[in-house]
Structures are given as structure tokens and as C-alpha cells.
Amino acid sequence: MDASSGSTSPLAVIGPQFCASHPVQLIFKKKIRGVKRRSFTATDASAGNVIYETKSPWSNLRKRSTLFDVASGNPLVSIQKKVLNAHGQWQVFIGGSFDPKDLLFTVEKTKIVQFKSKLNIFLASNTGKDVCDFTIEGTFLTRSCKVYKGDSSMVIAQMAANFCMVGNADEQEKQYQR
């Protein structure tokens, strides 16, 4: 529900096809591929098929990564860490672009040192950044978080980890069910 308008329609940041009216269980896997190279996949727990995958270039000085829709092979968003920023700002762009005109939103830590993570999300249209559009609060220890509409207490999404190790000792992967 969009609190500002009172509407019950989902608030689509990337596109309405990524909004669901019911909880969706995804399994996230992180794979380490060499020195400082890692990739992530998101699998639909009900169907068992990989639906999203990240890819990063081998030379990755700006910490760039792109999230792909596996079925179509199309890039959904591209992510890069903003350099020389004390608050650990990340920028998210539509598709495979890193062009400023394609900026969707930015993510910023609320404090430089945090024991419990709190991130503010500002949509590209929110140029003043007086009030954030979304807030994410969570902990790395429990691998869980909640997403709030703006700076309110209205929860619009949440993730809770169901952590397990799978595979043999040579091919262990971490699975996080969200």
C-alpha cells in the first residue's frame, strides 16, 4: 500500500512485474569465484529454478555488479559503490547502464559506524534527500531485515534467514532462504 496516496496498489521501483501480493520465498546463494570475485543467485523456492543472478567484471575497481533476469538474460539493475563517500553510498541504475540519467535510487548508511544496519533509500526523483523514500533495518548476525516506507513504521517487506550449508566439503555453498 502506498501510504502517501492511501492506494492499495504496490509501489513498483523497478517494475510492476516484480511486485507480489503474497510472500515469495527465495533462496539466495553466494559463490566465491577466485580472489574478491563472488556472485549471487536467487532461486524460487517453490519451483526450484534460478530467477536472478549477479555478474561482476573481472576488473572491478568501482565495485560494479549487474543483476540479471535469468529467464530473459536481460539486465534488471546495475549497482556501483560511489567512490569517496563517507556514508558508503551505493547507486542503482536501470538495466545494464551506469549513466547518471538512468539512476533509479541511491542507498546510504545512516551512520558511518553501525552495530545494527540502517540504510536510507532515496529514489532518483528525490533530489532534496530531506526524507528518505524507504528505510532498511537489519542485522548481519541474524541475516534478517525489514523494509519500511519512508521514515515510518510501515513495513512493506521483510527477510528472515534460514541458513544452511549444502554440498560436500569441496563445493560448499551458503544458502539463505528469504
TrEMBL record:
<dbReference type="Pfam" id="PF04525">
    <property type="entry name" value="LOR"/>
</dbReference>
<comment type="similarity">
    <text>Belongs to the LOR family.</text>
</comment>
<dbReference type="InterPro" id="IPR007612">
    <property type="entry name" value="LOR"/>
</dbReference>
<dbReference type="InterPro" id="IPR038595">
    <property type="entry name" value="LOR_sf"/>
</dbReference>
<protein>
    <submittedName>
        <fullName>Protein LURP-one-related 15-like</fullName>
    </submittedName>
</protein>
<dbReference type="InterPro" id="IPR025659">
    <property type="entry name" value="Tubby-like_C"/>
</dbReference>
